[in-house]
Design a protein that fits this description.
The protein has four helices and two strands. With 91 residues, the chain is mainly alpha-helical. It has a two-stranded antiparallel sheet with strand order 1-2. The mean pLDDT is 86.
């Protein structure tokens, strides 16, 4: 991938941004998430998590399966506030 490739569309992070964080010594997905907000946008990491894990593996020499995932917090999928409030529209 090119350096200007967008890795996280929600937070507008490029591959260069991720590589910069890795070069500063952050090596886990959880650290990168906290530093960059990657995986914290509306998609909750569904589009960027695998790309970031692959880049961590490439830079560290670890196997992808040896890199831990971040903690998933509810709601895992976006939901409307009215659902949380118990307000339902009649259709």
């Amino acid at each position: 991938m090119e350096e200007d490739t967008i890795v996280c569309r929600c937070e507008d992070l490029t591959l260069a941004d991720i590589r910069s964080v890795l070069q500063r010594g952050y090596t886990s997905l959880e650290e990168i998430k906290r530093i960059t907000r990657c995986c914290m946008g509306p998609c909750q990491g569904r589009t960027c998590r695998d790309l970031v894990v692959k880049e961590i593996a490439r830079s560290s020499g670890k196997k992808i399966e040896d890199i831990g995932l971040t903690v998933f917090r509810p709601p895992v999928k976006p939901i409307k506030i009215k659902c949380l409030l118990g307000v339902w529209e009649h259709e």
